[in-house]
Each structure stands twice: as structure tokens, then as C-alpha cells.
Amino acid sequence: MTPNVSTVIFAIADGLRLYSAGKRVYVKKTLARSMPLPLLSGVKVNRLSAKRWFRGEIGQAIVKENHRIALLLKKTSLNPVEESELIELYVAAFLQFETELPDEFRLAPGPSIEEVQSFITIR
User: Fold this and answer.
1) What does the pLDDT look like over 58-73, one tens digit per residue?
2) Which residues contact 82 (CB under 8 A, 6 or more apart)?
3) Angle at alpha carbon of residue 37, lines to 41 and 57, rounded to 5°
4) What is the average pLDDT score of the chain?
5) Which residue among 19, 30, 52, 104 has its CA within the 20 to 30 Å range from the CA of 95?
């Protein structure tokens, strides 16, 4: 091989190694990031609306089956993490069980309340 050909092959091999290393770092950093659960855009949800809904007919049936929600509802004051958890569980339950939603809120099926609870537990 002439010096020019060996230099080109060396450059290509090193370029591939560099690309591979960059890809591994990108994947590693992506997996390390936290994954926040999205809420519907434009919808204001707070702890009070969640508590009100869970005290309704559909919500009471869910509370009977889910001890974590019952515990959060019994507390008089929630820390920010618990409040966030209650809101996330409320949004998941609301989208799963409410049948008469306005057209702008009809979405593709999202995670069930059990899946949301497992996401929160994993964090």
C-alpha cells in the first residue's frame, strides 16, 4: 500500500471509532436523564381538583382498590413530591375512566393508573 491509501484507511477506521464512542456516550447520557410524565397542554390540574374527582363516584371505586391514593387523600398536607404523585395518578385515572371528555381531550390510549404508579415507584 502506498502511504496515501494507508492514511485514508487509518482516518476512516479512527473516524468510525470516534463515531462509535460518541454514540455510546449519547446513549448513556440519554438513559441517565429523568423522564417526566407529560400532562395535557393547556389544562390546569391541581391537588384540589384531584381530591374532588377521587371523592366522586368513579374516583371512590379507584380509591377502594388503590391504597396509595387513599393514603394521599387522607393526608392533610402533602409535600411537593406527594402532590405531584397525586396529580399524576389523577390524570392517568381520569383519562382511563372518564368517558365523556370533550373532543380536544380525546387522546390515544395512554398509560393506565397502575403503569403510572409503577413509573412513580421506580423514580
Assistant:
1) 788 888 888 888 888 8
2) 72, 75
3) 75
4) 77
5) 30
Are the C-beta atoms of residues 86 and 120 closer than 8 Å to each other?
no
pLDDT above 60: residue 104: no
Convert the chain into a string of H (helix), E (strand) and C (coil): CCHHHHHHHHHHHHHHHHHHHHHHHHHHHHHHCCCCCCCCCCCCCCHHHHHHHHCCHHHHHHHHHCHHHHHHHHCCCCCHHHHHHHHHHHHHHHHHHCCCCCHHHCCCCCCCHHHHHHHHHHC
Which three cell numbers mark 41?
397542554
* Three cell numbers written together for 27: 446513549
pTM beyond 0.85: no
Estimate to the nearest angstrom the gap between the alpha carbon of 40 and the chain centroid. Answer: 12
Q: Which residue has the cell 402532590?
A: 83
